[in-house]
Amino acid sequence: MHQIIIHVDMDAFYASVEMRDDPSLRGKPLIIGSLPRERGVVATCSYEARKYGVRSAMNIKEAYRLCPMGVYMHPDFEKYRAVSDQLHAVWNTYADAAETIALDEAYLDVTKKAGGWENACGIARTIKRRTREELGLTCSIGVAYSKTAAKMASEEKKPDGYFEIPTPQAFVDLIEERDVRVLYTVGEKTAGRLNGAGIRVVRDVRERPEDVIRLLGRQGEWIVRVARGEDDRRVTPYRPEDAKSISRELTFQADAEDFAFLQDVLLLLSMSVERRAARAGLYGEGVSLKLTYADMKSMTRSKLIPVTRSAACIYREAAAMLEQVPRRAVRLIGVGIYHMTSEYSRQLRFEDLAPQAAGLLETDVTERLKALQDRYGLDFAGNLDRIFRGETLYRTVEYMRKHRGGAA
User: Fold this and answer.
1) Would you name the residues annotated as active-site residues?
2) What CATH number does the domain containing 108 carry?
C-alpha cells in the first residue's frame, strides 16, 4: 500500500490562540511579537494584519509603518506550548507515526490506521472538527500520497482549508504552471539561478531536467524528482534527543556596554537553558555563547565540556568566553548547549572529574543570584518559574538594564 500522509497546519497559531482567549481581538489586525517602540520582529499575525502586508519575521517598525492601527502583543510561549500539547494529543490519536514540525504543525502517517484513501480523508475531517470543537481553533489540512504533496495541499485553501492530492499526476497537474519556488527546497537564491537559465515555472523543470541538474548538482536532482511528483520520504517521529541544541537569547531595547551587566544576564539565561534541557530530559556536551554587536555583526564562541545541563557549568563556561570577546556595545546575547544526549548516567560527568569543584560551582550560582537580587532590588523567591517564561524574563532583563544604567 502506498503512503497516505496528512499534513496539519494551524492558521496563524499564536494570533488565533489570543483571539480565542480574548474575543474582543477578533476581526482586528493582531500582530504578535515585539511592540512598535521596541527592537524585534513579527512572530506571527492575524489574516487581517496580512492584508496590510505584515508578515512573519518582518521588522516590527516596518510592520507598524504598514499597519499603525494594528493591535500589538508580546507572545506568551508557555501558553502556546500548552495548547500545542493539546493539539498534538488529538492529532496523534489517528496516526501510525507523527512527525512534529513545530508547535502548530505536523505530518501524520495514517496508512495502516486508515486502510485506504476514503478512510484517511475521513480522519482528516475528524481532526479538523475536533480541533475546532475541543480547542476553539481552526487548522488547514492536506491529504496526499507524500510529504511534499501533503504540505502543498494544506497550503492550497488556507485558512481553515482542506485539500486532497491523491496521486503524483494530480500533484503535477496542480503545480505545473506555477513558479519554481513552489517546489520544496527552492528558495530565493536557487530560484534566481534557475530563472537566470530561463527556468521559471515547474513545467520548465520537467522539460529541462539536465539543465537543472547541471546548475544545481545533487539539489537539482532532488528538484527534478519533486517536479515529477516523486517523494518517498517517511514520516519520522521527533525525538527530543534529535535536537541539535538548546539555547536562550535576548535582544536588548538599547545596546548594552556594561559587561558586568552582561554577566548577570548570562546567569539568568544559563538557568533558563538548564530548565529547558531538564524539561526535555537532555544534556549537552558543549556550551556556546552568541553576541550580536550594535553594528549587527554577530560572533559565536563554543567549547566542548563533560556532559551537563547544570546552570552552574553553563554559566562558568559562557562567562569565561565572554571575558575573551571584544568589548563593544552589544545588541543581543545568547547562551546554549549542544551535542545533545539523553544518556547522562553513561557519560563522564563534571562531578566525576571534580565533585568538590562542582559543589562550589552550584554554591557560586546561588550566591550570584542572591547578589543579583540585591543589586537590582529584585525578589526571585518563589518566582523563578514565572520569571523564566519568555515575556517575564525579557521584562526582568530590561528592568535590570535600565536600573544598571541609572545606577551608573
Assistant:
1) 105
2) 3.30.70.270
Q: Which domain holds residue 378?
A: 240-407
CB 177 within 8 A of CB 205: no
C-alpha 73/C-alpha 35 separation (Å) is 6
Separation CA 195–CA 176 (nearest Å): 16
Distance separating alpha carbons of residues 35 and 41, to the nearest angstrom: 9
- Establish if 235 belongs to a structural domain: no
Q: Going by C-beta distance under 8 Å and a sequence separation of 6 or more, which residues neighbour residue 112?
A: 96
Which residues neighbour 306 within 8 Å (Cβ) at sequence distance 6 or greater? 285, 347, 348, 349, 350, 352, 353
Q: What is the pLDDT of residue 40?
A: 87
Pairing relationship of beta strands 42-45 and 139-144 according to DSSP bridges: unpaired
Which residue do the cell numbers 500533484 mark? 171
Which of the four pLDDT bands, split at 50, 70 and 90, describes residue 364?
Answer: confident
Residue 382: Cβ within 10 Å count:
7
The answer as to whether 99 is a domain residue is yes
Residue 167's closest CA among 154, 185, 150? 150
Q: Are 32 and 43 in contact (CB under 8 A)?
A: yes
Instruction: Give me the numbers of helices (H) and strands (E) for the chain, helices first please.
Output: 17, 12
Residue with cell 493539546: 86
Predicted pLDDT of residue 382: 62
Interatomic CA distance for residues 74 and 31, integer angstroms? 9
H or E element that contains 308 = strand 298-308
Neighbour-count burial for 100-116, b at 16+ CB within 10 Å, e otherwise: eeebbbbbbbbbeebee
69 and 200 share one domain: no
Which phi-psi region, left, alpha or beta, contains residue 382 (left: φ > 0; alpha: ψ -120 to 50)? left
Q: Is the pTM of this model over 0.85?
A: no
pLDDT band at 113 (very low <50, low <70, confident <90, very high): very high
Q: List the beta strands (DSSP E) in 60-125.
A: 71-73, 97-102, 105-109
How many structural domains are present in the chain?
Answer: 3
Q: Are residues 205 and 149 in the same domain?
A: no
